[in-house]
Amino acid sequence: MSEKTPLFEAHQRLGAKLVDYSGWTMPVQYISSLKEHAAVREAVGLFDASHMGEFELRGKKAVEAVNHLVCNDLSLCVNGQAMYTGLLNEAGGFVDDVVVFRHSEERVFLCVNAANIAKDWEWVLAHTRGMSGIEANDLSAQTGMLALQGPRALEVLSLLCPLPLEKLKRYYFIDGEAAGVLCTISRTGYTGEDGFELYCPSEKAEALWWALLEAGKPWGIMPCGLGARDTLRLEMKYPLYGQDIDEQHTPFEAKLNWIVKMKKEAFIGKEALEKQKERGVEKTWIGFEMVEPGIARAGYRVFSEGRQVGVVTSGNFGPSLKRAIGMAYVEPLCAKEGTVLDIEIRERKAKAQIVKTPFWKKGA
Amino acid sequence: MKMEGQIPEGLKYTQDHEWVRRNGHIAVVGISFHAQDTLGDIVFVELPEVGSMVVAGKAFGVVESTKAVSELFAPISGKVLRVNEALATSPQLVNAEPYEKGWMIEIEMSQPEEMEALMGASAYKDFLLGQ
């Protein structure tokens, strides 16, 4: 049985195409994933992200406890600031990629991937068990999450929210009411556009959803499904857990070095990463665009001069770019920008070129 | 729109959701409204070369949407006379006009009797409703 988000009935009313996505019944599209993608790039779109998980850690040393679990350094954040990071295993591989929210020294909130809620919860409990005064709560079931994304998101949300949202900087958050619903509002997202993510009590999620859709009407707001979410994140080369990153891949291999702070005191996976840094990575995650017709999909093999040098992890048509793009792990010697590779698409090979990422740049 | 969508009379349909429009020994082939609706936004269509042979029931090309990759199966056998070149740059024509500008290939039928095995509009509708 697939789980339902608090917005299940709203999706049905809107005529969404529903699919099972890592155990959740989710809208893949409402009208057209291309139109939904365009709405987010050009104006504003609204996503249900309530399948995501939320944990809270409380206690005198909450920041310290989380800092031991993640590879980025939460001590660099001020209260009210969020950070993208990884929960790593001892081998340096991703248990998950998460966003941590520093409410205060004593209270930290984690947003985790839907498919990983149970695994992450076990992981957090196992690694905080010995710590005195740390209390962990899994708030996933009682928390709804909406993502309002696009260049008009600020104007739309400002209609419903008295807070000075224009002053909220990227990756900062604030608690307050939107449409009368108490939320944590963060200036974050998974699309490459300006926007906000709103965490609210799940029983209030539907009221907030309809209020946002109503407020966004002057800008042509569209409810957006997972299809648009995937092409938007693809154009930014944002990794999707389970596809682009997993327990077998480290942040260094995924070229996410910026989320690793090696100067930080011990954290899980640090020793493995130190060794990897010394000896170098064996594969590296690159972005490519197709030079010849075709779309490279996850699992397709990548060749250079007839020899397999890697595997595609994500690929699709980039709607804003109007060309087919993708990502792959390849051997470091073949990972230079400009390198032309052959990707096996069904029975033929199609040329692709490694390009600078993110693929999509505002105003390009 | 009901799930069966538009099913024009006068065409023949396959269980793989291709349609055929016959004109003498020439047949035009595309995918049904239901097929494009299920696939979602189509972003790439791979068609065979003009002059190549297709065989009934065998794959002759691929259609890709933002969601998935799907094979195209030939409803009938024969030689490919023309392919819809417009789909190379405008694959979304398959969504917009699946039975008209979104056509895919034109075949010179080698075994016209294969047409008899295909469904008419009402049989195809029943087939969709029974799925």
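The radius of gyration of chain B is 13 Å.
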